[in-house]
């Protein structure tokens, strides 16, 4: 196709994907890990596409970049991604299912089964998804408050989904649904010659919203209830800060044995958990949780870039940087729930490849998704990104009728337009700004080493303090509204197969009690869940970590100071963490 062509690519809009499969007998003799030795399935769905079907709204509006995405992301001319750079926008295309490969648990250890989905025969003609008509919203309830009638329906739907695993290639089966997360997150897919990773960037929220959308509709179809909605694990409210009872009933389809057994039976969750139990009273844990929620939703996320994560256009390296909620509480909830005491890799919830095998994963992510809506309600400049590379990024899913579809980020920004909403629950963290101060007045920065003497730092194996000069002080309200003050940690490097967490405080020294987070000086935390990049043989991840500190400086009375003190306290994995440099920037919001 000529680059100047304006022809719209014909896409199929079939509504009747046959549930029958074509089988290559040789695949039945292969071990699971060998089925995708060459990135191709030996078994596929039959999809019949009619090029004369009416084009949809997306097709009418495809620009040159979108047409190129069709070629790059869905096979056929996929290799064109390496021929020349894109002239304009470069959104992430949907993955090339035909080249889906082996997923990795960690260095030298592959996932023992294929995480790749069945490939439609007419993969080059997969249509864009269109929302079906709806008569009422599906309302997602808080899991801890669900009644027995709801729990029975949810158990039945999940049982029926598990029964579909009898055919391991049924895309609606429980394991195939779990494999979606494995394939997108553990190195099975590549786009533009690089691994595709939907975590640690601005793809995190939209990918998981689409993922839950189809999972929820599949469950509803299995019990013939189009109004069925997933529950959300309300861990941001004290009443929901424990495993919801419906998931803790042994023998239930919602129960998973690969959970930390020490965290059952009403144990209060630690939203900052990273593998080590803290000897802290329950009330302090709940207080810490609400403090973390306030920092992640309000203080550290005044602008879209902080909330959603770093930009991830086609051609860039994966995992450029997490948004606030992906960092905490999303990641610690995974770690807290996973069975790290008994499972080598924290299965199920404690590792990306296996997380979807625990039904509570979808309940957890429903509340993560709810935070997207709650964040926008706070106001200010909290709004969706407008970058076209983000809006036009795409994913691939099967719907409840086993039809394959492509979806765009731009179509999942409004949950109500997608047909679902959330039952309201109070959000006490919104009024939980920490006001208790550890230090009276300004800490003497003259007694602390300057940032240039501390960094580069070879390992964060103990608490460290340093002083750092701000780019501007005594800023006016207008200046603060125009630009956010950002504490930036450049090139944090660590082994991405290990758990990592360190906390950041301002205006205190390294003697600070880091087990009590409800302090005005607590700025935030960096965390990382074990994950593997297929093309990263040494498993050293390098990221940039940022904290918005404008509000924090106001609260602790340092607005007029030219130099401030910063303290880092490692919680887990600090001995393997290095940091090249630290600086404070002013960035447009």
UniProtKB/TrEMBL annotation:
Annotated crosslink 2'-(S-cysteinyl)-histidine (Cys-His) location: 185-199
UniProt cofactor(s): Cu(2+)
Boundaries of every Tyrosinase copper-binding domain copy: 199-216, 358-369
Gene Ontology MF annotations: catechol oxidase activity; metal ion binding
GO CC term (a single one): chloroplast thylakoid lumen
Broad enzyme group: oxidoreductase
Pfam families reported in the protein's UniProt record: PPO1_DWL (PF12142), PPO1_KFDV (PF12143), Tyrosinase (PF00264)
Disulfide bond residue pairs: 100-116, 115-182
Family label: Belongs to the tyrosinase family.
Protein name per UniProt: catechol oxidase
Organism of provenance: Solanum commersonii
